[in-house]
Amino acid sequence: MNTSILSARGLTKQYGPTVALAGVDLDILPGESVAIMGASGSGKTTLMHALAGIVTPDTGSIAFSTPTGVVRVDQLDERHRSQLRRESFGFVFQQGLLIPELTAVENVAIALMLGGTPRIAAETSAAAWLAALGLAGMETRRIGELSGGQAQRVAIARAQVTGAPIVFADEPTGALDSRTSADVMGALLHATTGQGRTLVLVTHDETVAARCSRTIRLADGRIVGQPGGVGAPTPPQQVATGQAPVPQQVQPPFPPQQLPYQQQHAGQPFPQQPYAQPAAQPYPQPAAQPYPPQAHPGQATGVVPNGARP
Ligand SMILES: Nc1ncnc2c1ncn2[C@@H]1O[C@H](COP(=O)(O)OP(=O)(O)OP(=O)(O)O)[C@@H](O)[C@H]1O
Questions:
Q1: For the chain, which domains are there?
Q2: Predicted ipTM?
Q3: Which residues have CB under 8 Å from 300's CB, separation 6+?
Q4: Which parts of the chain span the membrane according to its record (predicted)?
Q5: Residues whose CB is less than 8 angstroms from the CB of residue 288 and which lie 6 or more positions away in sequence, other chains included
Q6: Whole-structure pTM value
Q7: For residue 307, how far is its CA from the centre of ligand 1 (angstroms)?
Q8: Is residue 204 a contact partner of residue 154, using CB atoms and an 8 Å limit?
Q9: Which residue's CA is the nearest one to ligand 1's atom 29?
Q10: Atom of ligand 1 nearest to the CA of 221
Q11: Contact 46, 19 (CB under 8 A)
C-alpha cells in the first residue's frame, strides 16, 4: 500500500533545449523532512515547484494524498492548483517574500484571510504562531524592523498558520549566517515535522540537509544513486530541535496562550483549524484512474536516509 503523502512518477520538464527534470520518481511520507540537494542547475527548484503545483511537468504524475482522496496535482487546472497551494501547502523562500508595508502579524494573518477567516480571528491565530516561533512582542513591527532570522520566522509562521500539511522551503536559510540559520532551521522543523507535518526543502547547505530525516540528490534532472542508497523512504523520525518533544497534533500548533496581543482581542476564540479538504469544492478526483497508473521500477533511487550516510 502506498502511504506517501506525495508521490511523483516519471516527472520530466524541459525549458526549450534545457532538460530540467529527466524522469524523477519520488515518494514522501507524512511527517518526513526531505532535503533536496544537488549542483546549481540540477533541477532542485523545478522539482520542488512541480511537487507544489507551481510548474506543470511535461510528463509524469504527482499524487497528493488527502484525508478525502488522492489529488493528481499534475492534472489540475490553474485555478485548482492555486486553490491547492493556498489551502494545503505552505511556502518559505530564501527572502521570505513578505510584504514590507504590513506588520509581522498582518503578514501571517493574510494567509488565513485569503481563505476567508475574519481579520480578528486571523490575527489572533497569527499572533499565537509568532509567539510559538519566539516573536512575541514583535507582532506590530514591519518587516524592515526585523532581523533576517526574525523575518524568516514570520515566513515560517505564515507557511504554517493555515494548518497546511506540507511546507515547501526553497533555501530557507540561504540568506542567514550559520548561527541564525541553525535557529531558523530548528524553528522550521519544530513548526513542521514537530507537529506531524511534512517538510520538503531545497538547500545547498549540508548542515541544513543533515537535520532532515533524509536527503535526495539531483544531477542533470535525475535523482542520483548513492552507495548504500535505498529504494523506499525511511519512516519519519522526530528531529531534534533543541526543544522539548512536541506531541503530534494538527491544530492548534501550540497551546493557545493568552498573549498580550491576544488579550487586546479578548473574547475571540482561538480558531480551531484541523486540516481538512474543502468539502464544498473538491478537487477533481481521478476516480477512474487509480494511482499509480503503472508500475515504476527502481522507485526513488538515490534516496539516502541521513542516518545511513557514510
Ligand atoms: N523558467 C525557466 N526558463 C528556462 N529555463 C529554466 C527555467 N527554470 C529553470 N530553468 C533551467 O532549468 C535547469 C534547472 O533549473 P533549477 O532552477 O531547477 O535548478 P536548481 O538546481 O534549483 O539550481 P540553483 O541551485 O542554481 O537554484 C537550469 O538549467 C535552469 O536554467
A1: 6-263+296-303 (3.40.50.300)
A2: 0.98
A3: 25, 26, 27, 216, 223, 231, 232, 233
A4: none
A5: none
A6: 0.75
A7: 29
A8: no
A9: 41
A10: 14
A11: no
